[in-house]
Amino acid sequence: MHEKTLAELSQALQSKTLSSVELTQHYLTRIEQFDGELNSYITVSPELALRQAAAADEVIAKGEASALTGIPLAHKDLFCTQGLRTSCGSKMLDNFISPYESTVTQRFIDAGAVTLGKTNLDEFAMGSSTESSFYGPTRNPWDTERVPGGSSGGSAAAIAARLCAAATGTDTGGSIRQPAGFTALTGLKPTYGRVSRWGMIAYASSLDQGGPMARTAEDCALMLQVMAGFDEKDSTSVDQPVDNYSASLNDSLKGLRIGLPKEYFASGLDAATADAIDAAVKQFQALGAEVKEISLPNAELAIPAYYVIAPAEASSNLSRFDGVRFGYRCDNPADLTDLYKRSRGEGFGAEVKRRIMVGAYALSAGYYDAYYLQAQKIRRLIKNDFMAAYEQVDVILCPTSPTPAFKIGEKIDDPVSLYLTDIYTITANLAGVPGIALPAGFANGLPLGMQLLGPYFSEARLLNIAHQYQQVTDWHQRAPAGY
Amino acid sequence: MSLDRTDVEKIAHLARIAISDDEIPATTAKLSGILDLIDKMQAVDTDGVAPLAHPLETTQRLRPDAVTESNHRDDYQTIAPATESGLYLVPKVIE
Amino acid sequence: MQWEIVIGLEIHAQLTTASKIFSGSATAFGAEPNTQASLIDLGMPGTLPVLNAQAVRKAVKFGLAIDAEIGMTNVFARKNYFYPDLPKGYQTSQMDHPIVGKGYLDITLEDGTVKRVGVTRAHLEEDAGKSLHEDFQGMSGIDLNRAGTPLLEIVSEPDMRSAKEAVAYAKTIHSLVRYLGICDGNMAEGSLRCDCNVSIRPKGQAEFGTRCEIKNVNSFRFIEKAINTEVQRQIELIEDGGKVVQETRLYDPNKDETRSMRSKEEANDYRYFPCPDLLPVVLEPAFLEEVRAELPELPQQKRERFESEFGLSTYDASVLSAQRELADYFEEVQRVCGDAKLAANWVMGELSSLLNKADLDIEQSPVSAAQLGGMILRIKDNTISGKIAKMVFEALANGEGDSADVIIAAKGLKQVTDSGAIEAMLDEVLATNAEQVEQYRAAEEAKRGKMFGFFVGQAMKASKGKANPQQVNELLRKKLDS
């Protein structure tokens, strides 16, 4: 039954050819069987899952089910889940049993979905490989020597290995799209403000956005339908009606204008990925789209600007982890300063500490204008680039990352080389525009990803385009061997 | 922009992060590398460009002034490292 | 050397909202520790702030009252520092774009002169929690009930030149925020707190000296003492060849000294940046007009009206207008009795001393404005004398009757104005004191004054104070001098 997509499972549950308890038990068994090696989950919650599944079966029996009722999902372990450990992949929160529920997970509970557990991630979502987790690296089911991408690598690996039907992720600089690309999944980063951030532990508040990860665009549409919407608890949540994402999946692509940013196809892009995108371009043309070259002239500034803005916000967001009210506290602090320094020094991992320090430096007296303010100005330039591009085209097509999944350990000691892997994804976060990643092919058995970026609130259109592509390709149907 | 040992010690203190003597050289090198990457921004002329803090440039919504929270102290303090008589305990605060 | 003192004040006024600035927790004072600390106030991971509309409204009210520029787009920023009473490791405040910009206040000094003091800005921010230093096995206890209470930080220009001016300014702010109904002004509970920036410079020098900030001075008396003590310290330091170091100091009222706050010394790189969890607050002109229409008559306007409409002295007018409730009381007394001067005298005299002695607010006065006004009417129509009025007032205060009339009637205090009756009574007094009458008549003119007083006293005593004193005087004189 794990071969089925979320949409197919939903039908099976509602036609009662399958019960949620059976399905949930099946996934739990698979997790038991495969996750020892993959390490995609930090916490598995069998009791909660089976309880929710039983309740879902009752709802289905009453004929009151919605699309997600009884569907076993996994949540990235930075969505707060009441009564369940919410670790952010950090020693700092290893003992943190969340006293409240995030809006996103609450919406899934309300929709009747089942929580299998919490997935692994780069510590506090700071990374692109899921190697910096306190709970050890997650392995890519397509090649267990390789990373699944990050930071939502646990969710990606779990879906790819069929250890859940779909999962939530968060995307601050590409953390949904890049792992989706590395594991042949579909993942959507919504418009900033479309999905509530309440209870989603912040990395960089003005960039973070939660979104769905699944095998198909159709599944992502069902997931996003639950996640999206205004939340009065989040000041940056946008009060705007939510589209019906499934309704427009089958719209024609005739006359769709697709732009290829020339800056994204310059040096540094892996040849196989470039070829895969060429092939995709032809597919889209065959579907009736017009494709033309466009320019995002400030794209190369995205990484420097991002690595100021994100660490700056992070340095402040992570100040609350001080060993006083929750989380890790060092043993026998000599005084207050010692309590802070050792709790944070021992509780945070190396990459988190680096980003906090970069951020503190960028905001400190004498450097603010040169770093933070300059980065915000560049952010404006990048947003302007997108706005100008969307005058000419409806969506932008580009790779998700310069190369397929790299080996575990390959970049761990060289943060800068790891940062550069986000080169194609970061711009969308800076501009706040939505993007969907989807599989575009394989090279040497490794998935190749591409992404479509659209104007604000164009999620329905992006899902439609991805779905149409998936009607004429089968990359998304492939499964890693052995799972 | 390359940092030296004193810079790193200063930043670590500002961020309240303990850093041992043997960690300093590697940290200094890595932070300097990151700052080199960031410094590519400095070449761009951004005169007259307004900084962008939020992508959507919308405005703050206001909440009606109503008390909606009740006391959950016991729940919230079960995850606290040290409490007594309803207070969070910390090493003595010196003013 | 002649030194000039330069003082600027930062006043933190807790805004009287029901809930906190960014959360739905109650702001009530005195609750059990941490029972009013929600997920947001505790800085729990993943929580987010949403701004309280009343905090914005009250800040704007203040801005309009001091004729300030209003920040039509104002922005919250994070002030980053680590302190146990600051749960998020930053204080959400406003930096470059405060809600209230430049404005001013006119303050009345003791000699009646009016001085204009500039207000640099006023911004919204969240209050911190409290560290309790009672010994918990050598630890401090943190109570976060106060964390997130809305504050308006009002920053003055360094326009004050003496501790007395600083106190006058602080009192004016205190009076204003209470008038506006934006802060209860309770300094003992910390609803209004004051940081004093103090420096000195040789008289005539244009540049400012190095300033010290005295934190959290919580009474008007201490503001004056703390500033004077600090000024003295700085003068002695400089005159001994030392230098003032810019730092934060704490005033210790027990020792009457200021001392350096070690804990705040190093925390000077606050790394302000716009809060990414909050969006710019944009105010509409129509909103400003709506708030402006709600503004009450302000203390200064009231003072001026009391002077022009009632002919009160500047001093009386400023005392009576300093507190809205007192001003309202006075005006009601005036309305009932139609005599502003008598009303002012009674309110500032007997009534104030009664309230002071009993430690009561004007709202708790045992004598209502209508009662006091009614009593003054009886003074005016000669039903009672001023002296008897004091007895009536006391009886009113003790609840011996609902009105002056009831008490006058019940106690038979009505003044005797029948000259026949007074004459008969005087004849009796003079007969009883025939010896003194002889002495009086024999005495020289110069000595008669004092002796005359004796007869008045006897006469009033005989009438139990009820005889009209003016008539007693006139008739006595006639009888003795004839």
TrEMBL record, chain A:
Pfam families: Amidase. Keywords: ATP-binding, Ligase, Nucleotide-binding, Protein biosynthesis. The active site is at K76, S151, S175. Residues 22-463 form the Amidase domain. Heterotrimer of A, B and C subunits. Belongs to the amidase family. GatA subfamily. This is Glutamyl-tRNA(Gln) amidotransferase subunit A. It comes from Pseudomonas neustonica. The gene is gatA.
TrEMBL record, chain B:
The keyword Isomerase does not apply. Keywords: ATP-binding, Ligase, Nucleotide-binding, Protein biosynthesis. It comes from the Bacteria. It catalyses: L-glutamyl-tRNA(Gln) + L-glutamine + ATP + H2O = L-glutaminyl-tRNA(Gln) + L-glutamate + ADP + phosphate + H(+); L-aspartyl-tRNA(Asn) + L-glutamine + ATP + H2O = L-asparaginyl-tRNA(Asn) + L-glutamate + ADP + phosphate + 2 H(+). Pfam families: GatC. Its EC number is 6.3.5.-. Heterotrimer of A, B and C subunits. NCBIfam families: gatC. Belongs to the GatC family. Allows the formation of correctly charged Asn-tRNA(Asn) or Gln-tRNA(Gln) through the transamidation of misacylated Asp-tRNA(Asn) or Glu-tRNA(Gln) in organisms which lack either or both of asparaginyl-tRNA or glutaminyl-tRNA synthetases. The reaction takes place in the presence of glutamine and ATP through an activated phospho-Asp-tRNA(Asn) or phospho-Glu-tRNA(Gln). PANTHER family: GLUTAMYL-TRNA(GLN) AMIDOTRANSFERASE SUBUNIT C, MITOCHONDRIAL. This is Aspartyl/glutamyl-tRNA(Asn/Gln) amidotransferase subunit C. It comes from Pseudomonas neustonica. The lineage of its organism: Bacteria, Pseudomonadati, Pseudomonadota, Gammaproteobacteria, Pseudomonadales. The gene is gatC.
TrEMBL record, chain C:
It catalyses: L-aspartyl-tRNA(Asn) + L-glutamine + ATP + H2O = L-asparaginyl-tRNA(Asn) + L-glutamate + ADP + phosphate + 2 H(+); L-glutamyl-tRNA(Gln) + L-glutamine + ATP + H2O = L-glutaminyl-tRNA(Gln) + L-glutamate + ADP + phosphate + H(+). Keywords: ATP-binding, Ligase, Nucleotide-binding, Protein biosynthesis. Its EC number is 6.3.5.-. Residues 328-480 form the Asn/Gln amidotransferase domain. It is an enzyme of class 6 (ligase). The keyword Phosphoprotein does not apply. The keyword Nucleotide-binding applies. InterPro entries: Asn/Gln-tRNA_amidoTrfase_suB/E, Asn/Gln-tRNA_Trfase_suB/E_cat, Asn/Gln_amidotransferase, Asn/Gln_tRNA_amidoTrase-B-like, GatB, GatB_C_1, GatB_Yqey_C_2, Gln-tRNA_amidoTrfase_suB_CS. Transmembrane segments: none annotated. Allows the formation of correctly charged Asn-tRNA(Asn) or Gln-tRNA(Gln) through the transamidation of misacylated Asp-tRNA(Asn) or Glu-tRNA(Gln) in organisms which lack either or both of asparaginyl-tRNA or glutaminyl-tRNA synthetases. The reaction takes place in the presence of glutamine and ATP through an activated phospho-Asp-tRNA(Asn) or phospho-Glu-tRNA(Gln). Belongs to the GatB/GatE family. GatB subfamily. Heterotrimer of A, B and C subunits. This is Aspartyl/glutamyl-tRNA(Asn/Gln) amidotransferase subunit B. The gene is gatB.
